[in-house]
């Protein structure tokens, strides 16, 4: 492996992103020197896992790391970065929505390292194809950051804040909202005393098909067929669930509008 | 392998379900004697694939099959079944929404064989864990049909018409609507000149995580965190896309309502 000039890392934060990135970079050969978290016991737990020290305070952070990764909630980035000592290492955050400027007006070297993926401490996933959206204060720093991120992923995208937020918005639809549709479907079946597990092969295949053929070519169902009788029947069945009923009506209409328009363009 | 008492099959219909089931049962050792389709060239193509004869007319269908599978659109089941000759073999349809009675008032032996899966002629999938929802006119016929479906799947569920429609409604959310959310996300990125392919690892992981931990435990995102600033930013970005904006607002609200309620119940 090659090193990016970075070698010693500090992790700030103890959530899912901190655990996942900390672990990945440790395995890629970097030394995690210090961990800081507002919750001391969580910080100790992560530090132990990473073979790092626990920083007792923000102001007391060791100033000799090459890179500081702020894997904290969007709201906390401003506050935490202003509480940090002046450091000469690069300081990056992992947020989709926080502008680079929050860091670049405070530190000599700064950047953004945003993984376009849903990460969980307890779910180990392969990061090698996860897109990392990178931004840095200048070209040289971007090269350093790319080299660093390239040690865990081969999907590196240079994206400014505006572009990063667009990817995040799309991700909300493709991840957060998709997940809630799974919840709507499985909750409905459970409330009816039926087996939500029966949906599993369908969930798997729906996503596999969309990945293979593209979702536009994979659309099926009553809305696409214009099967008004089934749509009406389903809406009747949802009469006691007004939110779900409204959602059913709206997405059905969107499917019809989208595919009519798409077909007209062919 | 064991036979279900059925041995010779007739397939009526030439769409995705006809191709998938015809092929699966042929591979399971059944003999497909005849194929009928309103489109003669499509019927010939499927018949050739299955090593079957083409029936020239509905009324001219051979009466010596053990099982007739009506894999046609919901609207066509009534019409086609009334045009068939009187047969002593079992006649089943593959529709979620059409009641068994449409067949049982016409034939001595009848049933429903509904696969809870999105099927495509050009996408070969493993049917062995696909739930087949079965219904038949009486207990003996249900046993025969179960034995038959058991030759291609190990997930057999006895479900009457009312229950079958409920599973179908849930499937519309977990498959058709999920697929459209993928379309919303990828179309948005393409319209912005960005790379929709970057969403692929996220789509894969979102579904894998929901399958492993359950979707209720997998929910993440601005709506769940109550991150109003990001929600507002995203809604602003969707100002020129009123359908998507409305959908974003509505699912975000549903996520918040669902998880507040769920947490209160804990």
Give an account of the 3D structure:
The structure is a homodimer of 266-residue chains. With 266 residues, chain A is an alpha/beta fold. Chain A folds into two domains: 8-159, NAD(P)-binding Rossmann-like Domain (Rossmann fold, 3-Layer(aba) Sandwich); 165-265, Orthogonal Bundle (N-(1-d-carboxylethyl)-l-norvaline Dehydrogenase, domain 2). Chain A has eleven helices and eight strands. An eight-stranded mixed β-sheet of chain A has the order 3-2-1-4-5-6-7-8, sandwiched between helices. In chain A, α2 links the parallel β2 (31-36) and β3 (53-54). In chain A, α10 (228-237) packs antiparallel against α11 (242-265). The radius of gyration of chain A is 23 Å and the shape is elongated.
Q: How would you sum up this structure in a few lines?
A:
The structure is a homodimer of 266-residue chains. Helices cover 51% and strands 13% of the residues of chain A.
Summary keywords:
homodimer, 266 residues, alpha/beta, Rossmann fold, N-(1-d-carboxylethyl)-l-norvaline Dehydrogenase, domain 2, 11 helices
Question: What would the average pLDDT of chain A be, to the nearest integer?
Answer: 95
Strand order of the largest sheet of chain A: 3-2-1-4-5-6-7-8
Q: Which structural class do you get from the secondary structure elements of chain A?
A: alpha/beta
Number of domains of chain A: 2
Any idea what the CATH superfamily of the largest domain in chain A is called? Answer: NAD(P)-binding Rossmann-like Domain
End-to-end separation of chain A in angstroms reads 49 Å
Mass-distribution shape of chain A: elongated
What is the radius of gyration of chain A computed over CA atoms, rounded to a whole number of angstroms?
23 Å
- Tell me the major beta sheet of chain A: 8 strands, mixed
Oligomer: homodimer
In DSSP terms (H or I, runs of 4 or more residues), the helix count of chain A works out at 11
Second rung of CATH, namely the architecture of the largest domain in chain A: 3-Layer(aba) Sandwich
Poorly predicted runs of chain A: none
How many DSSP-defined strands of chain A? 8
The CATH topology of the largest domain in chain A turns out to be Rossmann fold
Protein chain pair with the most extensive contact, residues per chain: A-B, 91 and 91 residues
Q: Provide the β-strand percentage band of chain A.
A: 5-15%
**Order of H and E elements of chain A:** EHEHEEHEHEEHEHHHHHH
CATH class of the largest domain in chain A: Alpha Beta
């Amino acid at each position: 492996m090659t090193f990016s000039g970075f070698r010693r890392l500090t992790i700030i934060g103890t959530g899912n992103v901190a655990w996942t990135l900390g672990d990945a970079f440790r395995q890629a050969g970097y030394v995690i020197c210090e961990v800081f978290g507002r919750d001391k016991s969580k910080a100790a737990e992560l530090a132990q896992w990473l073979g790092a020290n626990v920083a007792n305070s923000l102001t007391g952070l060791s100033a000799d790391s090459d890179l500081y990764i702020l894997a904290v909630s969007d709201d906390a980035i401003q506050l935490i970065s202003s509480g940090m000592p002046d450091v000469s290492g690069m300081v990056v955050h992992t947020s989709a929505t926080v502008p680079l400027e929050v860091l670049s007006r405070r530190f000599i070297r700064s950047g953004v390292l945003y993984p376009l993926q849903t990460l969980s401490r307890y779910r180990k996933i392969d990061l090698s194809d996860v897109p990392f959206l990178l931004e840095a204060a200048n070209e040289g720093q971007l090269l350093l950051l790319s080299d660093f991120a390239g040690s865990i992923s081969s999907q590196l995208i240079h994206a400014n804040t505006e572009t990063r937020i667009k990817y995040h918005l799309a991700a909300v639809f493709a991840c957060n909202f998709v997940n809630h549709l799974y919840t709507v479907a499985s909750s409905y079946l459970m409330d009816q005393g039926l087996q939500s597990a029966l949906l599993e092969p369908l969930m798997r295949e729906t996503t596999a098909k969309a990945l293979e053929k593209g979702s536009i070519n994979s659309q099926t169902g009553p809305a696409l067929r214009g099967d008004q009788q089934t749509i009406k029947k389903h809406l009747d069945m949802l009469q006691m669930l007004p939110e779900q009923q409204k959602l059913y009506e709206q997405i059905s209409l969107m499917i019809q509008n989208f595919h009519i328009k798409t077909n007209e363009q062919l």
